[in-house]
Amino acid sequence: MRVSRRATLSLRTVAIGYLVVLLLVPLGLVFYRTFEHGFGYAWSWMTTPAAISALWLTLVIAAIAVPLNTIFGIICSYVLVRGRVRGRAILDSLIDLPFVVSPVIVGLALILVYGEGGWFGNWFISHGIPIIYAPAGMVIATVFVSLPFVVREVAPVLRAAGEEQEEAAATLGASSWQTFRRVTLPSIRWGVAYGVVLTSARALGEIGAVLVVSSNVAGSTLSLPLLVYQRDSQIGPAASSGAYAAAMELIVISLLVLVGMMLLGKRREEVR
Amino acid sequence: MRIDVLDVGKRFGEFVALDDVSLEVAEGSLTALLGPSGSGKSTLLRIIAGLEAPDSGEIQLDGADVTPARPQDRGIGFVFQHYAPFNHMSVRENVAFGLRIRKRPKAEVKAKVDELLALVGLTAWSGQRPAQLSGGQRQRMALARALAVDPRVLLLDEPFGALDANVRAELRLWLRRLHDEQHVTTVLVTHDQEEAMEVSDTIAVMHEGNIEQVGSPQQVYDHPVNDFVMGFLGPAVRMEGELVRPHDLRLSLEPENGATEAVVTRVVHLGFEVRVEVELPDKTQARAQMTRAQARELELGPGDTVYVQAPHKEREKVKV
Ligand SMILES: Nc1ncnc2c1ncn2[C@@H]1O[C@H](COP(=O)(O)OP(=O)(O)O)[C@@H](O)[C@H]1O
Ligand SMILES: [Mg+2]
Fold first, then answer.
1. Whose CA is nearest to atom 12 of ligand 1?
2. Positive or negative, the Cα torsion across B64, B69, B73, B74?
3. Which pTM value belongs to this model?
4. Contact check, Cβ <8 Å, B88/A167
5. Alpha-carbon distances, residue A135 vs A57, A86, A147 (angstroms)
6. Whether residue A202 sits in one domain with residue A87
7. What whole-number distance in Å separates Cα of residue B43 and Cα of residue A250?
8. CA distance B189 to B33
9. Strands B273-279 and B210-215
10. Count of alpha carbons within 13 Å of A98, Cβ hemisphere only?
11. Does the beta carbon of B41 sit less than 6 angstroms from any atom of ligand 1?
12. Are the Cβ atoms of B84 and A167 closer than 8 angstroms?
C-alpha cells in the first residue's frame, strides 16, 4: 500500500504528539522539579543515607535477578526448543505466568510461602534468615516478575537458528559443551542481550511485587522505586523534593539501559 | 572405511521410516541413496552419522559396532542440504572448526585450512562471512569444513539440492573428481536419478523405508528388480502389462509379429533424440524414443498408424 505524503506527515505528527503528551511532558516536569532549586539541592537529596541505601538495594536486586534469570532463561529456552522431554507445553505456558499474574498477587503468594506460618517461612525464620520484609524477599519477587523476558527473547532466536549448525559441530568432533559455547551461544547472543536489557529494566523499576514483601523502612528495604512511591505519598515540599531526586536517578539508570538497547538494536540489524 | 547397516529399523511414532534396512557400503566407494522424498534416505544417513538413534539394528564401521557412539566419536564428515554454515564465523574459521576442536597446533591448522580453501576455490573469500557467499560457495565451504578433519566416511545429504542446475552439475563433477583423488568412502543422498547415475559407482534405491535394489548405475537402470525401480530410474511406459524404457520400443510402419497397432499423437524433436507419442488401442498413452536418423526413416506425423514392438526382455530377478 502506498501512503500519500500528507498522510505520512499527519500520522507522524499524531505519533510524536502522543509521545510528547504521554511521556516527554511528565518526564520533563520531573526533570524540572528535580533541578528547580539548583543541582546542589537535588544532589543533597540524592545523597541522603536513605537515597544511597535505596540506590544500592536497587542495584543489588538487579545484579542478582538479572544473571539468575539470564542463565535460567537460556537453559529454559534450550529445553523448550531443543528438548525432547514431555511437559514442554506445560513449561511453555508456565513461563508466562509472571506476565499474566498481577505483581501484587506475586508478593502475596511469596508471603504465603515464605512468611510467618508459610510453607518454608517457619524454617527460614527459625534459622534466622528473614525473607519476607527483608531484601531477600524483594530479590525473589523481582526474579519472579522478570523471569519470562530472556526466555521470550531467546527461544524464537534459537528456533530460527535451527539445529543443523549444532549437528554440524557434533559431526566435526565438538562435545555438547563445546557445541553450546562455540555455536549455540554465539548464534543467540543478540537475543540474550536484548532479554538482559528488558530484564534489567523490569528489575530496576518493579514496584508492585516488592512493595508487598518490603518492610518499607527507609535505609533497609526501600528500593529506588519504593522510595519514590513513599516520599511522594508524604506531604510537604521536602518529601516531594526527595521523590523527584530519586525519580531522577531511576530515569538516568533507565536511560542508560535504553541507550544500551538502542545500540543493540542497531547492532542486530547490522548482523542480519 | 567400510560401512555395514544391519537390520536398521526406525519409527517416528506409528510411522515406519526405516523397515529393517540392511546395506553394505564398500571401502572407498561412492554410494548413492536414491529415492523419492520421504523414502527414508536422510533418516538412514543420519543414523549412520549418529545424529539419529535407530530403534533396532546395528551400524558397523570397519566391522566395529558404533551404534551407541556419539557423532563426534565416529570420524565422519557430514554435509547438509542447507550447508549449516556457522554464520558468526568467517569462512576460514568455519573450515578450521574441527581442527581447533582437536587442539591441533596453529601452524598445522593454518596449513591445512589454506590447502582446503585452495581445493574448493575459496582462498579469496577466507575472511568473509558465509552470508556473503553464493549457495555454491557455501556448499564448497561446508565440504572443506567436513574434509578438514580427514573423515573416514563422508556423508552428504542432498548436498546440491538447493543449487541452480549449472552450479549443481559443476559441483557433481567436482565431487566425483575429489573422490577419485582421495577415495574417502562416501554416501550421497539424492532424489535425482541423473545425479546418482552420474556421480556414484553404487546406487541403493530406497522406497517407503526399504532398500529395493543395490547395484551399479547400469545394473539398476537396465535390470531393475521391480516396477518401482524401473519407473524411478528413468522414463518408463507400460506395454502389455510390463514397464519398458521408451528407447527400447521399436516402431515400424508394417505390422509385425507381436506388435501392437497404435496411432501417433505427437512427434517431439529433442535435439539428438526424437520422442514419438502414441495412443495404444486401450487408449493409454505411450512414448517411444529414437535417434534422429531412425525418425527420418519413418517420417512419422500425428495421425499416422504405427506398430509398436516391445522388447523381449528377460527381467533379472535379482534378490536384494
Ligand atoms: N524427526 C522426525 N519426526 C517425525 N517424522 C520424521 C522425522 N524425520 C523424518 N520423519 C519422517 O520420516 C520419513 C522419512 O524421512 P526422510 O528420511 O527425511 O526422507 P527422505 O530424506 O528420503 O526424503 C518422512 O515421511 C518424514 O516425514
Ligand atoms: Mg531427506
1. B17
2. positive
3. 0.82
4. no
5. 8, 36, 18
6. yes
7. 56
8. 5
9. unpaired
10. 24
11. yes
12. yes
Alpha-carbon distance of A224 to B257, in angstroms, equals: 103
Alpha carbon separation from B140 to B32, B108, B117, B125, B309 (Å, rounded): 19, 21, 9, 12, 48
d(CA B34, CA B40): 10
| B13 Cα–ligand 2 center, Å | 18
Which cell is A69 given? 534469570
Long-range contacts from B100-103, C-beta under 8 angstroms, 24+ separation: B101/A172, B101/A173, B101/A174, B101/A178, B102/A173, B102/B149
Q: How far apart are CA A263 and CA A233, in angstroms?
A: 36
Longest Cα–Cα distance of chain B, Å, equals 78
Cell 551400524 locates to: B59
Band of the pLDDT at A257, cuts 50, 70, 90?
confident
Q: Which ligand is nearest to the CA of B162?
A: 2
Quick one: which atom of ligand 1 is closest to the CA of B52?
1
Give the span between the Cα atoms of B197 and B215, in whole angstroms. 11
Q: And the C-alpha cell for A37?
A: 532549586
| Chain A residues bordering chain B (beta-carbon distance below 8 Å) | 164-165, 167-175, 178, 182-183, 186-187
State whether A146 and A204 are in the same domain. Answer: yes
Which residue in B has a C-alpha nearest to residue A184's C-alpha? Answer: B86
Contacts of B149 in chain A (CB under 8 A): 172-173
CB contact under 8 A, A164 and B149: no
Return d(Cα A99, Cα A102) in angstroms, integer: 8
Q: How far apart are CA A140 and CA A112, in angstroms?
A: 13
DSSP 3-state assignment of A178? helix
Contacts of A237 (CB under 8 A, 6+ apart): none
Over the stretch A99-140, which tens digit does the pLDDT of each residue have?
899 999 989 999 988 888 888 888 888 888 888 888 899 999
∠ CA(A133), CA(A136), CA(A139), 5° rounding? Answer: 110
DSSP for residue A180: I
Euclidean distance between CA atoms A27 and A114, whole angstroms: 37
Q: Which domain holds residue A164?
A: 41-271
Contact A173 B98 (CB under 8 A): yes
Give A3 or B207, the one with higher predicted confidence.
B207
Provide the CATH number for the domain around residue A257.
1.10.3720.10
Residues A126 and A209 in one domain: yes
Residue-averaged pLDDT of chain A: 88
Per-10-residue mean pLDDT for chain B, 320 residues long? 96 95 96 96 97 96 94 94 94 97 95 94 95 93 94 94 86 90 94 93 96 95 91 83 83 84 90 88 85 86 88 48
Nearest to B72 among A164, A173, A186 (CB): A173
Residues A52 and A117 in one domain: yes
Question: Which H or E element spans position A121?
Answer: helix A121-126
- Number of folded domains in chain A? 2
**Cα A168 to middle of ligand 1, angstroms:** 19
- Rounded CA-CA distance A209/A188 in Å is 30
Question: Which residue in the block uniquely carries the three cell numbers 529456552?
Answer: A77
